[in-house]
Specification:
By secondary structure, the protein is mainly α. It has helices at 2-18, 28-48, 52-60, 71-88, 92-110, 122-129, 145-154, 158-166.
Length: 169
């Protein structure tokens, strides 16, 4: 999953990073690599917070693309913006431009959401491989959000640990 995230960062990083004059060319690759780790860490962090599961599942709901005003999306964007400023010395505006250009597109593709709606990506993966992670809680052979919520609430590692297994961290 981390490889898929990195591929998506590279796919969407052209405009947000490479073609962004505020990001020095010598930092392009490092900024995109940092963005991958930051997104993954932010997802794990949100998952481990009280109410984090509902924030993450709210990204999966709706019929459109990822909503940049979603609290989870805003938290991930803010985290990346701050860390880009600290690590690479980007101005607040430049870091915000990079994060705002990457996060909704990357999360949308990662979660399988697109302009025509629907889910896929991580939800397809969970449905296909969820049994291997112990997610099919009701034994019906399918993994849905209710199975994931049930697995997380029963698992002492919480969703953060589950996401860690899924994302290979």
């Amino acid at each position: 999953m981390f490889e898929q995230l990195t591929q998506l960062i590279n796919q969407f990083g052209g405009d947000a990073v490479v073609n962004n004059p505020a990001v020095p060319n010598e930092h392009n690759e490092a900024v995109m690599e940092h963005a991958s780790g930051s997104i993954l860490d932010s997802l794990k962090n949100i998952a481990s917070q009280e109410g984090g599961m509902s924030q993450l599942t709210s990204m999966l709901q709706g019929n459109g693309a990822i909503d940049a005003s979603n609290p989870a999306v805003q938290q991930i964007t803010n985290q990346l913006t701050g860390s880009l400023g600290e690590k690479f010395g980007l101005s607040s505006d430049a870091a915000s431009s990079v994060a705002g250009g990457l996060i909704p597109s990357v999360l949308g593709s990662l979660l399988g959401k697109n302009a025509s709606g629907g889910t896929g990506g991580i939800m397809d993966m969970l449905s296909k491989y969820g049994g291997q992670f112990g997610l099919d809680q009701d034994g019906d052979g399918q993994v849905g959000i209710s199975d994931a919520v049930s697995a997380v609430t029963k698992n002492s590692d919480g969703l953060g640990g589950l996401l860690g297994k899924i994302f290979g961290k």
